[in-house]
Amino acid sequence: GIQVEQSPPDLILQEGANSTLRCNFSDSVNNLQWFHQNPWGQLINLFYIPSGTKQNGRLSATTVATERYSLLYISSSQTTDSGVYFCAVVDYKLSFGAGTTVTVRA
Amino acid sequence: DGGITQSPKYLFRKEGQNVTLSCEQNLNHDAMYWYRQDPGQGLRLIYYSQIVNDFQKGDIAEGYSVSREKKESFPLTVTSAQKNPTAFYLCASSMGGNEQFFGPGTRLTVL
Q1: Chain A partners of B45 at a C-beta cutoff of 8 Å?
Q2: What percent of chain A has pLDDT over 70?
Q3: Which residues of chain B lie closer than 8 angstroms to A98, CB-CB?
Q4: I need a surface site. Which of B8, B29, B76, B92 has the fewest CB within 10 A?
Q5: Residue A42 DSSP label
Q6: What is the arithmetic mean of pLDDT over B18-23?
Q7: Residue A8 has pLDDT above 70, yes or no
């Protein structure tokens, strides 16, 4: 199956800082999703992005399908951004990476 | 209010018992999925269904069973054959194979 690798595994930020999360995948995919898992376990959809760039408020994502990677940018981080960020590639199912745990300190 | 509901939120099971987790969606999505999440890990696919009365095994189907008698419902049974069932279970749905949306999850603990 498709392998998905996320980096870094952990990220500690001071409130207001910017950061970049990376997702590499091993094969061509139909699509890609980014999620934020909150402390209660709920997966929040952030982006559904097969290629190109999308923005939603302080978050943006870029997928370069030909080079098999995607990036998630968090700007002006807030404590509410804390949690685990997952990248998942879409074939007939979602194949998840292990996630990046983000901690934003006030 | 459209969405995906899962019940119960927490479930405790004695060893040797079967338990059934509920997943309902009112998004009119064709496809539904069950995933398992263990601490510190990503999600793994248990079963999925693309249409009513049809379903396929995912990567870790052993010890689990499902049914899809109605479009809006996809219950998961964790059987006594599942050796390590304690985990967080998440249900998802999508229109075809497009963007998937998740329910709030069920935390199962075996006592």
Answers
A1: 93-94
A2: 99
A3: 40-42
A4: B8
A5: P
A6: 96
A7: yes
